[in-house]
Amino acid sequence: MSTAAVSSDPARLGPVPAAARTRTAGRPAWVRPSVAVLLVATAALYLWNLSASGYANDFYAMAVQAGTKNWEALFFGSLDPGNVITVDKPPASLWLMALSGRLLGFSSFSMLLPNALCGVASVALLHAAVRRTSGPLAGLLAGAALALTPVAALMFKFNNPDALLVLLMVAGAYCTVRALDRAGTGWLLLAGVALGFGFLTKMLQAFLVLPAFALVYLVAAPAGLGKRVLQLAGAGIAVVVAAGWWIVAVALWPTESRPYIGGSTDNTPLELAFGYNGLSRIFGGERNAGGGFGGGNAMFGGETGLLRMFGSSFGLEISWLLPAALVALVAGLWFTRFAPRLDRSRAALLLWGGWTVVTALVFSFMSGTIHPYYTVALAPGIAGLVAIGAIELWRGRHNFAARIVLALMVAATGVWDFILLDRTPEWQPWLRWVLLPLTAAVVAGLLFGLDRIRRAGIVLAVAGVCTGLLAPAAYTVVTAGQGHSGSLPTSGPSGNSMGFGGGVRGGPTSSELIALLKQTTTKWSAATNGSQSAAGLALNSDTAVIAIGGFNGGDPAPTLEQFKRYVADGDITYYVSGGAGGTGRGGSGEIATWVEQNFTPQTIGGTTVYDLTSGATTG
User: Fold this and answer.
1) Where is the Glycosyltransferase RgtA/B/C/D-like domain (predicted)?
2) Among residues 320, 419, 492, 339, which one has the least CA distance to residue 2?
3) Is the full-model pTM beyond 0.70?
């Protein structure tokens, strides 16, 4: 924001390149110990009580378990070691978790450990990226703001792909910042590689930050326009190569000897990327009900609109610092409107601001499936904006305009956090009543110039940081201490989760049935409709189970003919009735009907089970 010095025109703040400021100032002695404390505290927060969530989302835990048993299942992200069908996402995050399981033994801790470490690494890289443009204090504040975002604590202790996605996007941002130093092609290519692997983690969501990365490099790189354009083209090729190698490998692999790509309509990852996980997420469709599901169901994002990120679905997850971030972005771009092209403060604002605005707008207006935890992708952008804005405005507080904007950031944060805390009035009600007077005191101190008194200034600065981080920090800590399970986890004191499965509790998992599956010796101990039922069986019995139809039982894998062949070859011992599925485009309904017509049912632990090795009762 370049408010470190006042220009000859007292009505505005003059630009001072942040890069020059950090290079000439050197690295104070307190920086490294402070960074160490930040990272150790982050690790403690994310590793604390890590196994409380059990297997978290059974859907992904089932695939991780399969990856620890079979290398082909690991490569494709299969739901079972026999490679019938994959999860409905690319497998990069599963690679990390399954490799951890192979090294340490499959368990809740080994599965969730890589994601917790992704959180620590994300905080470290965000600190490093912000420090290079705005100094060590801004870097520390950005890292702390990310670590203390509730949805970050939720997802960095969970097994969804979002943890690795955030790390790769922050890595891409760090590489972009490094590329700005000397128009370095190598760093820009690395940024492209990071986003390419982001595609292999959660497909097109990784590309929401691409416009910001491209814009900031095109505007602020120290090279001629032609070179900048060519370098960006090279980075685009790096994205395609890093994302495309797995796509090509799957396309070249004979379909009859690999698993069906779950979620796709034509058994290809490209259709999955641009269909179910792509345009269908944005515009909605038959398999992406989105915010309209159940009349604007909160767990599916609620109603679309400009204020969606502040609403009941997303507000408590991500919006604690969002008002301050938007104030910082608007004010910063105004203050640097006359800055030279290479000004690093404005470059930082374009980077983190573009990240935040594009992602928030897409999330706010997409009509397809979206869940509250998706907003973890916003956390680094918001943290970067708030940190840069707060530090630069504090440096330039001798200018009354900067002082007013800083007071506005504090006031907006305090008032909005009070409103958010009031949404859970039964939890720590004292907190919001402490926050209001603290906010008022900091705002008054800024407006009346108490910061000009040395010791009072230090107290005021500390109080300002506390005002901004107190509420989200408390909500984050209570989130980190809770166990979360199911496919739709949410942050907060209750540990609420919704959706299918969780821990090892999904589906019919009576002790009698699990004991029966453990005694099997066939390729698959059982088959059942949908992963909601199959995951609980596989995780509890530590055997291979076919999730007929994939996540919701709607995918055509296995087909009825394939299932008949498995049965004829003696590869499946039991069919467990129930679970998701029907007579849609998947074969789960047909398989259920065929089994019911040809095999004798028995009840085990309250569940209807068919022994497929006993021979059909009819032809």
Assistant:
1) 88-245
2) 339
3) yes
